[in-house]
Each structure stands twice: as structure tokens, then as C-alpha cells.
Amino acid sequence: MNKKLYHGACLYPELWGRDVLLEDIATMKQAGINVVRIGEFAWSILEPEEGHIDISSFVEVIELLYEYGIDTVMCTPTPTPPIWLSHGHPERMYVDEHGTIMDHGARQHVCTNHPYFRKRASIIIEHIVQAVSSLPGVIAWQLDNEFKAHVAECMCRTCKELWHHWLEQHYGTIESLNEAWGTNVWSQTYQRFEQVPQPGPAPFLHNSSLRTMYQRFSMEKIAEFADEQAAIIRRYSAAPITHNSSIAFHLDNERLFQNLDFASFDTYASKDNAHAYLFNCDLWRNFKPGKNFWIMETSPSHAASLESYATPHPNGYVKAEAVAAYALGAGAFCYWLWRQQRTGSEQPHGSVVSAWGEPTIGHRQVLEVEAARKELEEILQETRPVQAEVAITYSDRAKAYLKTEPHRKLDHRGLVNEFYKRILSLGLHRDVLPEGADLDGYKLLLTPFLPYVSAEYLQRALEFTAGGGIWVVGPLTGGRTEEHTIHTDAGLGELEMLAGVKTVFTYPMDGTGSIGRAFGVSAPLSLWSTVFQPLEGGASVVGEISDGLTPGLAFLTEHRHGKGKIIMLGSMPSGEEGDQLLRQLIQHYTDEAGITVKSDVTPGTIIAPRQRADGQTLWIIINMDGHGGSVTLPCPGTDAVTGHDLPAGQVTVDAFGYKAIFWD
Asked: Any known ligand binding at 207?
């Protein structure tokens, strides 16, 4: 599967006649498309009536594709159950937090936990796998499509029963649950597990423990559904299995990919949000370390639906996206979609060819991507991405805590993305790590916006610092327990004692006039904040507060732990001065940690460092903002494409351009 770089598109043969299919396959071949994804929405075609299953039409499509040298990712069709499963069965349908029962249509309208849906899903999946797994063109499987993209936690009766069972497994006794959740508040004490409600309609806000733990229950159940599908496929097929996910969905991606073979994501980030696109590449590379991730969906021009549309990408940008993805560890770069849909809710969406078969404005971008893929494929296949020395932790579980307690509409994804943007702008090579990732080989670890720090994560971070690493903790980190309650032994629990500080106050600093000063920069402080006093013989103050409600107390401290340090950042510097202060903070501890995998690349341009088996370094330099850029080559090198020798010094790239340079 990793013998080539894949350049792909989504194809919907069920929507068109054979003549159009043959035309599409021929034009795909001309454009350099070498893999397609099919079948994710085709359940009603494969099983038009309950029990009447015929997969032969898709067998023919896969065989046709293979004749043209195009491989297939076959999907399970579970996001769009057919009408015979839905009609007259409201008990099988998804129910939202307001108690609204979904009707048939759109997608994800059925509760994925309902036992009859699971039964029929297992049957159709088994038939598909038996029919196509032996075909030579099937190189991978995709489960479903974008789990929990359009729906969040289901509130149906099936989920309620499963919720009660999950709680009993998790807590053992109702007394343990009541103690953990503190249910004496507002007389919420329960006598039996079956009395615990779902966080549906309520006059005011639900208990924080109820809301957060229900999200975690839902995340676990959708991952179990993925595991169930994967187990069926593995009975008949050795091809690797993935799912096309996103951090925007209501999932725990780390848990989801735990039992899958490689990681994939969908992205429709605009040029102005190129940092979010790169963030995803840096994260998905680390869900399955050592394996190429896939970009399973991105638009060749723009995303759109009946109700909205995005600005089309500027000419050349999709090429820059593709080169960045391949260089950062992607094995495939695929479009949604090949031929524009003539019906349905996504008719205006960008495609490679129009509904009438002509090239769209995105078509030329696809040709540019193919030219770049051909030029770089051999170079990239003989190298692997270099592990970064700087890591930033991302957690979908933290996303659940901040959904329950968003303060002023904060969300984990947006907060971490903005923090990441500063690391990117400093020319640092970086890894975005899921919460359970191994920390070996890193020198600087950043853990922002993680309300609950698990005992397992704390132990790994302490081992990291004991071995010489620098751990920057915060802001908004460590202030909640696993059950989303407040610590009663200290403001940040065990963490603050280890960091050599005492939490004096926690409060929202926005609008209080609080100013923090560190590294020669003064900036307003914001968000819900923790302010410290060093313990005797403990931390030293790096950043002190002036003005506002708590002048003289610390918002930034550092404390020696083993050979390394724990840095506590209790508040978020804001505004332009705050941005400068955070950059100074990151730069300071980058220097102290001895980070070497970095460059002086200009803003809007990135370096993707890779390495050959013999240890030689490859830099892929890509301009992402359309203004061109430059970087200093630290020693003489060789242009990997032209073979020309290059002197040490400045190397420039054109707007949305790239260069590949080997150096020692």
C-alpha cells in the first residue's frame, strides 16, 4: 500500500450510468488519479429491499478501475441506512439533545447503537467484504463516513439503557457515582443507575459530571461500532482499515484509531487557515506512528452546500497543500469529489469535473498536484518524516470538558490551533500528539487547555521532565478532575505540588486590568486564570502580575524536576503584546531545551524535514500563503529534483512553490 504516493478522488458510480462511469475513469487516468473511494452512501443500491443484497455492480466498477490502473478504497455504507430500515421505526432513529427524533434522509439519521441497525449493518458489511475482498484493486477499507459529523450524543431509549450499563461498569455502585459527581447539589442524588438521566432538555444547566461523562460514553460507543465493523472485515480481508475523521466531529479520535490500521482525515480549510490544515497533518501523523496518514477528502476548489459556500482556493494553493501533506507524512491526497453531483444537498460543492463532464476551476489544480506528485514521489519514498523535538498535546477528551464548560464560548480545537500557530510561525518542526502518545525523543512539551490531566499523562510528563525535558503546563490546564469537578486538595490537585507552587486564586481575568510581565514584555492577561505563590524551596517566579485584582502574584513559574523543568502558565496573555509574550516564552524554552530541528523560515512558508536511511536530511520547503518565502540553508546541499549543488545561505521559493533539498 505504501509503494506509491496516492492521488485520489471520491467516485459515485451509483449516481450515474455506465457511459458516464467509463468517461470518468478515462479522464481520471488522464489526470493522474490512481485511487478512488467508493460505496460509503450506497446501501440502498446494494440492498434495495431488506435481505435482497447484490454487490455485483460494485464488483464491476472495481474491476473496471483496476483495468485502468486505478486502485480502490472500499467503504462500508453505514452512514446512510435505507428507507426500509427507517420508515415506521422512530425507535431506531437518532434523537438530539432537545428530544427531536430525526426523520429519514440527509445522513447519520439512525442511532448507531440500536441493535437492529447494528445487525443489518453487520450483514451488509459481511456481504460486501465477501464479494470484493479478493479483487486485486481493493487496497484499503474505509469504515462509514465522518462518524458524528452532523450529530452529537444520541438521546434515544437505546442509548439511555446503554448509558446506565456503562455507568454501572464505570462506577460499580450508585453510591460511588453520587460521591464522584457530588450529586447532593440541587438534590440530584440517585438511588439506582436507571434513574440517571441523559443530558437532554432541562430548565437550566445539567450537572457538569453528567454532561462530560455522557460525551465520553458516546465517544466510546462510536469507537466500539468502528471496532465491530473492522472485526467483520478482518475475517475475509487483509487490506488495511481506516476512517475519514476530523477533530471537528464528536469523537475521541485517539480511541477511534486505536484498533484501525492507518489514520485518515477530511479537511476543507481555506488558505487563511493553512495553520489548521498543517495542525491536522502534524496530529494525524501521530495517531498511528510510523504509518502514512491519508487526506481522504479535500476540495480542489471550494466547499459548498445548498445553504453556504466557501471562497475557491487561489491558483496554486492546492498544489502547496498536497506537497505539504506528502512531505509531512501523507500517503494519499484525495478530493471530494470527482464529478459534481447533479442532485442532493451538496450540488454546489467544488469538484474536478462538472455534472455535465467539463473541467471545473479546480481541474487545473489537480493537474498541478499530479505534476508535483510525480516529481517528488521517488524522493519522498526514500525518506521518512523526522520526529520533532517540540510536542504539543491535543485531546478530544479535553474537547468534551470545554463543551460542558466553555466559559465564553471557548473550544479546545480553536484554542490549541491558535497556540500551535505561534509554534509554526517560529520555524519549529513540531509534532501534535494525542494524549496517550509516547514522549520519548522530545525536549519541549506543551500542554495547553487540558482541563483534566489524567494520572497516566501526569506520570509520563514527569518521567519526561525527570529525564531532562521542559514541560510547559497551561493555560486552563489541570483545574478539573476526571468527573469534571473541582479539586478539593489544591487548585490544581497533585500537579501544583509537583510544580512547586500553591494556587492562591482562580478567576476570570478578562476585563480586570490585570497585566503580566515576563521576558521583558508586558501584556494583558485573559481567560479563566490560576495565580500562584511559590512554595518554600519550590518554584521561581518568571512572570508576575501587576494591576488588576492580584498584583504581586505569579502567572508564570518554573520549577526544577529531575534534570528538567515544569513551567506553569496560569493565564493567557492577550492582544498583540500577549502574542509577543507567548512567542518569547516559546522561544526562551526552545533555546533552553536545545531544540535543533528548526529553521529561520519566513512567515507563510514551512519546512518539512525528512531523513534517508543513511541519515542524510531532506528539507521540503513549501510556501503556503502565496507571497513566496525564504529560509537559510545551514550548509551546502543538493537540489533533490534538479541535482544541482546549492551553496549555504538563503534559498527562496515562489508563491505556492516548493523545493526539495538534501543536506548533511
From this structure: no
The answer to whether 14 is a known catalytic residue is no
Q: Which of 40, 146, 254, 435 is catalytic?
A: 146
297 among known catalytic residues: yes
605-663 belongs to CATH 3.30.870.10? no
E strands present in 435-481: 444-447, 470-473
The half-sphere exposure of 508 on its side-chain side, counting CA atoms within 13 A, is 6
The residues, ordered by sequence, that sit 6+ positions from 403 with a Cβ below 8 Å of its Cβ are: 211, 212, 215, 411
Full-model pTM: 0.97
pLDDT grade for 2, boundaries at 50, 70 and 90? low
CATH number of the domain located at residue range(s) 390-593 in this protein? 3.40.50.880
What pLDDT is attached to residue 440? 97
**What is the CATH code of the structural domain delimited by 6-85+111-150+233-382?**
3.20.20.80
Whether 566 contacts 532, CB under 8 Å: no
> Which own/partner pairs from 219-222 qualify as long-range (CB within 8 Å, at least 24 positions apart)?
219/250, 219/251, 219/252, 219/255, 219/396, 219/397, 219/400, 220/166, 220/252, 220/255, 221/112, 221/113, 221/159, 221/162, 221/166, 222/112, 222/147, 222/148, 222/251, 222/256
Residue-range domain boundaries for the chain: 6-85+111-150+233-382, 390-593, 605-663
Q: What is the pLDDT of residues 315-357, one digit of tens each?
A: 999 999 999 999 999 999 999 999 999 999 999 999 999 999 9
10 annotated as ligand-binding = no
pLDDT, tens digit (0-9, with 9 covering 90-100), for 11-65 = 999 999 999 999 999 999 999 999 999 999 999 999 999 999 999 999 999 999 9
Active-site option among 297, 405, 435, 483:
297
154 is in an annotated binding site: yes
> Is residue 111 part of an annotated ligand binding site?
yes
